[in-house]
Each structure stands twice: as C-alpha cells, then as structure tokens.
Design brief:
Length: 282
C-alpha cells in the first residue's frame, strides 16, 4: 500500500514547535506502546536534540508487557526517561516525579545558586491519535484539550497547568512526509492515519497477515475459527466474516463490514494486548 500523509498544517506545526522550544525545559513525547518505533516521528530526533525527553508509552493497557520492557531498555538513557502509562487510569504523581527525576541536574543548579525554581515547563509532542490529548486531560483532571479517536484533533498550542510543579505546552500531532511501507501500515492499523484516505479492506488483510506472523491464536481465539497453514489472509477474513454474520444477500461476505470489525477490535484491545513491533526486529 502506498501511504502518504502530510497536510499543510503539519508543516506549520513543525515550524511553530521549533520557535517555542525556548519556552520549555524539556519535552514529553507521547508514544503508542503498540508501535514504539513507528509512532516516533523521526523529525523530532533532530528538532529536539538539545532537550531532554520524557517518553510516555501511552496505551500500555493495549500492548504486550514483555515487549514493553524490551522497548524501555532500548530507549532509556541519560537524556531519555521512559514511563508506561494508561490514560484511563491517571497517575499525575508518576508523571511529575519522572519529570523531576529527568531534570534533577538542572533543578540542582538553581538550588546551588540559591534561586527559587518555578514549575517545570514541558512541551508535549507526538503523532496524531497517539493519545496525547487524552493523556493531558487525564493528568490535568479537566477537558483542557479536545480528544477524539481520529488524528488531527488538536490544532493549536495550549498551556496546561498540571500542578505547581509542572506546566505543559500542548502541540498538534505531527506526521512526516515520507513513510516506508511497514511504518505506514503500523500507523494505519492504529488509526494514526485517517481511515478516510485508506483502503480499509486491504488494510484489514494486511493486519490479518501481521497478526498471523505474531500469533495465529489471536484470531483463532477471538473469532472461534480454524486456520489451516495454507489459508490466505483473504480466506481468514471470509471465515471471520461468516462467523460474525458480516454477510450480504446470498451469504456473500461483506468485506467492508468485516474489515471494519477487525480493525475496530484491534484498536480497542479486544483482540488482546498486542505490540506490532518486536524490539529486536528494528
């Protein structure tokens, strides 16, 4: 599948982020735990190189806990701290504590000079639909930012006062111009790219193929189907469609309906705790 997605407002956002970096002490990057590599915008690598980062692995409840540990080891270093997070179970203290641990040297410099340190200021960045707005709302306790299970909801910069120790500057979700096929598919599977521009039937077939490579029992258990070694993704989709009653007149499988079922159930975690990327495969 050829996936390209780079609206004009995203280019403007990158320029705006660069201008406002001087206003913050560090950055909080929201990562989708299901796709820890694909959900990191490579543009940020250079753009944020002079800022420490707190990497929030959001949607922890939807991802594989064993692979989570491996990804944490891969991304953690002196300038990058990792915190796994479930926005449905807010933990403000954990975020504030991790932020202060990350910035402890900078805080100590103020204290050594006898200066009173105000709240830490962090810029939040991430790709669309990584759960960034939901994360902010969960730790602020208010609906400070608009949320939605679709990319591109946040469009303006917003300051949010979490507590006296931490203030956040929100920014719109940003993708990058050229996506390789695997990254593009992973982003599409999780909803980071709008379904409106996708061929959902082909996307669902690709997801079936991906899930089969991870563990065929994911589909067998959820849909109570039997899968033979020679079965193609299309055959498996037809088995699921028949089992779920996604049929048109004459018993013909409604491919659009069954595709939406498979994608929706993956995104909601109904298929289980699934990480699409293994740390040793990157």
């Amino acid at each position: 599948m050829n996936i390209n997605w780079y609206p004009g407002h995203m280019k403007k956002t990158i320029e705006d982020i660069e201008k406002k970096l001087k206003l913050v002490d560090f950055c909080i990057e929201i990562i989708d735990s299901r796709i820890p590599y694909s959900s990191r915008n490579p543009i940020f690598t250079n753009l944020l190189k002079n800022k420490k980062k707190l990497l929030i692995f959001n949607k922890e409840d939807l991802s594989n806990p064993i692979l989570n540990k491996k990804w944490k080891e891969k991304y953690s270093d002196i300038n990058n701290s990792v915190l796994f997070y479930n926005a449905l179970k807010p933990n403000v203290n954990a975020v504030v504590q991790k932020s202060h641990e990350l910035m402890k040297d900078e805080i100590k410099k103020y204290e050594d000079k006898g200066l009173k340190r105000g709240p830490l200021k962090a810029m939040i960045v991430g790709i669309p639909n990584s759960g960034k707005s939901t994360f902010i709302n969960s730790i602020s306790g208010t609906k400070s930012t608009k949320t939605g299970n679709r990319p591109g909801v946040t469009r303006t910069n917003q300051w949010i006062k979490i507590n006296p120790k931490l203030h956040l500057l929100d920014t719109p979700g940003v993708l990058w111009p050229k996506l390789d096929e695997n990254v593009g598919l992973n982003l599409a599977f999780t909803g980071a790219i709008k379904d409106e521009i996708m061929d959902t039937e082909t996307l669902a077939l690709k997801l079936i193929e991906k899930l089969m490579s991870i563990d065929k029992n994911i589909l067998i258990k959820r849909y109570s189907i039997e899968i033979n070694p020679q079965d193609s993704p299309l055959t498996i989709m037809e088995l699921i469609g028949t089992r779920r009653g996604a049929l048109m007149r004459g018993g013909i499988v409604d491919y659009t309906k069954v595709s939406n079922i498979i994608l929706d159930e993956f995104r909601k975690g109904i298929l289980g705790k699934i990480t699409l990327e293994a740390q040793d495969a990157i």
